[in-house]
Amino acid sequence: NSIQANAETVLTDDVVDETLFSFDATNFRAGSFEYSITRDTAVRYGTFTVVPTGGGTLTYTDDYSENSSTGVTFSASQVGDIVTVSYTTTNTGIDGSLTYTNYSFRV
Prior knowledge:
The protein is 0% helix and 68% strand. It has strands spanning 2-3, 8-11, 18-24, 30-39, 42-54, 57-66, 72-79, 82-89, 96-106. The strands form two sheets. Strands 1, 2, 4, 5, 6 and 9 form a six-stranded antiparallel beta sheet that branches. With 107 residues, it is an all-beta fold.
């Protein structure tokens, strides 16, 4: 299964573990999304991938390039079968803009 999107989301300044989205690990074995972030003059482009490994554990990677620090960190957690992808932002006084160019989940 694959879901395509061109959605834009505001990344609120100075938050911890704000939820982006969740998925059920019993239905999807892995997930990834390509993204771009703009925050003031900082720009980042990357791919975030998360793979549940069973028993409530998971692994994730965030491969990206940026021209200067956006102050945004993605993370993933799992409670039961639900995997949640979240973000944390530093306090810069400026919100960021996240654009999903593509995301997909694999059975």
